[in-house]
């Protein structure tokens, strides 16, 4: 306590130098004359006992409340496991299933066990034992038990209760970890049956159970225990006594009440032991909280003695009251000063007025803020262009309509009462002007054409975004008010752009105009439709303007569901088998419903197969190997019935591909995550993101995030934060680097580093470093006293 007071005095020396604080202290000291001695004496003699009793009662209430909360957590876990026992999946048929042949049931059972394992943070491991001829165990995957191991699991079925708690000195066969007391919740399957064929074995994480017990003891010293008879179920203790648990349990057995508290002496110190009972599934557990009495009542005793001593000397009491009052008045100013000078100790040590320091710091921060606003303003157009390009090309399909509108509004775009359309511009005739341009000049030609289109579009439309594809083609994303008709302007713009390119570049232009929409989520589909629509142009090298809305009215005899095709490809990427079946059927039915001719339907389904085959190639699997060299296009062309086509896609194309992916998924998953983690450890100080690593391993952020969480148990950003925090702690304790330098070394801005470090550790970086130094000093002093 004295060392902490001295350290606090040392930290506050710089604050004492402030002129505002000095004036406040002197003024209050003059006002606070000698107080009455009776106040101090009365506080000491008449208040201490009452306060001690109140503090002990509060402590007992706290222990009871926390015990109730712990009991509720066990009750919730029991309810969850009990409900799982009544799931239709765990029926009598599982006892007779051949899990080797019935791969689907085995996989579903493993997935259900994984799901149950993640349903509660107290669960460490879930296993499912099936009593059959082979004695099977899913832990969580399929395995066959030996005769010796199966005896242990079979004994769990002999209990008369369907669900009960099980405490073992050693873990069950197949479970990981040291041989300590382990607490498991057993639920026989099927639930309620007198002759169960299996059991769900839910083992609790010992460390997590110990952690929730820590809430019973809010003090650093002391401990908390949970007993089942004479067995210790869990323990969280700072008292290093091997026989302490059993001694306290014996003391509790001597008490006349099932719930209460008593004083326990250990090594000359008094401890308050609070205990009570928890009834769990007809088992009676005893919870115990051991808290040092000094931690409960000593602060009040010290404070009262200080008041008594200071009351005797009027001068010291006046100084103390003046100090307390001035500190109270100065607290808002001090807090504000800390905000502005948290890491700038040199500034806080100045003797100038605090308000002048705050004023100067505020002016500096305001100038920095203005600079940041200017930088954001300068980079704003580039960010807007990148967002629109991703939106149009379908890379933001995971956003809903509201999310896309919010993102677009953040770049200064209006989104209300607007409609959007896509225009495609294709340049042709490069072969006719070889003397002027070469084939390698495609990028340069497209750049010039894009600039021409942008200049002309600004005079015609409200907003326009140009996409330069660098291959003699470009796209225009046009935004206009919803109450305006721009059909005429689109045609005029097309003619003006055509004339300009004809004159400047001496090339022909084919312009495809898509339909209008009010939904941002439809824009990628419009882009795909326009890309496909430009192939309706005539093959001759001449200027053409194709309005897809007019073209569709003239060509109603052919239709291709691009939107459904894109959904099929997306579902294939994320392996949504059930959704794929529905989408394939919807795709075929959409073609049939349009009363299209057979050859047109054949063209449509061959196009769909080509898109699926492209996705298979993109996944790294060769179609020839997947389909064993079969001529799939020939097989498809021979099908005449819609149902036959649907079954062919599902059974002969989709199912083999998903099965192939499932086989290599687990192997690749671990390798990918290990590669990412190694790179994170090498580059944690840089600006890294989930998207950048997804690009690095050629996948999408969603898949990488899901794989990362499944493999190591936490998500990407939490792992990165923990890694950076550990590096920061090493630098704070092992170096004399400044806080700002450490922040940059671990990849953060100083202001954000302070906030996230305090959020993760509960302390600011400066406080953490000071606490570590204080701890080292205490350890050094303790080691010096040891020889005596």
UniProtKB/TrEMBL annotation:
Q: Which residues form the HTH araC/xylS-type domain?
A: 674-771
Bilayer-crossing residues are 20-46, 302-325
Alphabetically ordered keywords of this record: DNA-binding, Membrane, Transcription, Transcription regulation, Transmembrane, Transmembrane helix
List the InterPro entries.
Homeodomain-like_sf, HTH_AraC, HTH_AraC-typ_CS
PROSITE patterns xrefs:
HTH_ARAC_FAMILY_1, HTH_ARAC_FAMILY_2
Q: Which is one GO molecular function term here? A: DNA-binding transcription factor activity
Pfam families the record matches? HTH_18 (PF12833)
Protein's UniProt name: AraC-like DNA-binding protein
Give the originating organism. Mesobacillus foraminis
């Amino acid at each position: 306590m004295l060392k902490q007071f001295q350290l606090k005095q040392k930290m506050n020396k710089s604050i004492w130098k402030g002129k505002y604080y000095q004036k406040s202290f002197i003024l209050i000291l003059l006002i606070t004359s000698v107080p009455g001695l009776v106040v101090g004496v009365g506080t000491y003699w008449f208040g201490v006992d009452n306060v001690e009793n109140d503090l002990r009662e509060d402590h007992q209430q706290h222990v009871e409340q926390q015990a109730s909360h712990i009991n509720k957590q066990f009750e919730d876990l029991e309810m969850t496991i009990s409900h799982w026992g009544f799931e239709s999946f765990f029926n009598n048929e599982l006892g007779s299933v051949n899990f080797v042949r019935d791969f689907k049931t085995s996989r579903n059972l493993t997935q259900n066990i994984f799901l149950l394992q993640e349903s509660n943070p107290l669960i460490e491991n879930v296993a499912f034992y099936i009593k059959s001829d082979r004695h099977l165990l899913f832990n969580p995957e399929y395995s066959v038990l030996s005769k010796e191991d199966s005896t242990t699991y079979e004994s769990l079925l002999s209990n008369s209760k369907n669900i009960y708690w099980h405490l073992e000195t050693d873990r069950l066969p197949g479970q990981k970890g040291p041989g300590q007391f382990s607490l498991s919740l057993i639920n026989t399957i099927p639930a309620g049956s007198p002759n169960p064929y299996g059991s769900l074995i839910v083992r609790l994480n010992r460390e997590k159970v110990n952690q929730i017990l820590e809430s019973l003891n809010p003090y650093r010293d002391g401990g908390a225990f949970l007993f089942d008879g004479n067995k210790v179920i869990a323990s969280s203790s700072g008292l290093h006594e091997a026989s302490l648990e059993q001694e306290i349990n014996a003391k509790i057995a001597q008490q006349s009440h099932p719930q209460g508290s008593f004083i326990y002496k250990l090594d000359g110190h008094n401890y308050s032991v609070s205990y009570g009972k928890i009834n769990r599934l007809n088992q009676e557990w005893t919870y115990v909280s051991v808290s040092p009495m000094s931690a409960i009542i000593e602060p009040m005793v010290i404070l009262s003695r200080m008041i008594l001593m200071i009351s005797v000397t009027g001068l010291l009491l006046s100084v103390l009251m003046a100090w307390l009052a001035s500190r109270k008045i100065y607290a808002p100013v001090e807090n504000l000063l800390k905000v502005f000078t948290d890491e700038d100790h040199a500034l806080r040590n100045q003797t100038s007025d605090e308000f002048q320091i705050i004023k100067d710091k505020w002016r500096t921060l305001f100038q920095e803020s203005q600079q940041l606003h200017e930088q954001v303003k300068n980079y704003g157009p580039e960010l807007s262009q990148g967002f629109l390009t991703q939106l149009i090309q379908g890379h933001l399909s995971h956003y809903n309509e509201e999310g896309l509108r919010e993102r677009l509004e953040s770049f200064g775009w209006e989104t209300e009462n607007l409609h959007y359309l896509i225009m495609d511009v294709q340049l042709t005739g490069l072969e006719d002007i070889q003397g002027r341009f070469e084939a390698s000049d495609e990028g340069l030609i497209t750049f010039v054409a894009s600039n021409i289109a942008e200049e002309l579009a600004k005079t015609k439309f409200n907003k326009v975004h140009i996409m330069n594809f660098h291959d003699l083609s470009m796209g225009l994303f046009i935004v206009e008010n919803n109450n305006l008709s721009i059909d005429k302007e689109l045609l005029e713009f097309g003619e003006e752009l055509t004339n300009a390119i004809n004159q400047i570049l001496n090339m022909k232009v084919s312009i495809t105009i898509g339909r209008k929409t009010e939904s941002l989520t439809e824009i990628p589909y419009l882009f795909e439709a326009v890309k496909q629509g430009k192939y309706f142009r005539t093959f001759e090298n001449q200027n053409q303007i194709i309005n897809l809305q007019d073209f569709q009215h003239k060509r109603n005899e052919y239709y291709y569901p691009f939107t459904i095709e894109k959904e099929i490809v997306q579902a294939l990427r994320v392996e949504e088998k059930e959704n794929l079946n529905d989408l394939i059927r919807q795709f075929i039915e959409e073609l049939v419903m349009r009363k299209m001719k057979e050859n047109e339907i054949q063209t449509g389904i061959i196009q769909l197969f080509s898109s699926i085959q492209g996705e298979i190639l993109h996944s790294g699997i060769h179609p020839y190997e997947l389909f064993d060299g079969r001529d799939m296009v020939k097989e498809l062309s021979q099908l005449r019935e819609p149902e036959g086509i649907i079954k062919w896609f599902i059974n002969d194309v989709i199912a083999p591909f998903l099965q192939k992916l499932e086989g290599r998924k687990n192997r690749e998953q671990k390798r990918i995550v290990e590669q990412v983690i190694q790179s994170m450890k090498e580059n944690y100080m840089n600006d890294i993101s989930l998207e950048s690593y997804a690009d690095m391993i050629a996948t999408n952020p969603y898949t990488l995030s899901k794989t990362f969480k499944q493999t190591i148990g936490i998500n990407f950003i939490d792992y990165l934060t923990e890694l950076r925090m550990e590096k920061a702690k090493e630098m704070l304790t092992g170096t004399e680097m400044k806080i700002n330098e450490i922040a940059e070394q671990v990849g953060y801005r100083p202001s954000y580093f302070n906030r996230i470090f305090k959020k993760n550790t509960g302390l600011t970086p400066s406080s953490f470093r000071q606490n570590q130094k204080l701890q080292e000093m205490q350890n050094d002093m303790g080691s010096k006293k040891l020889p005596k």
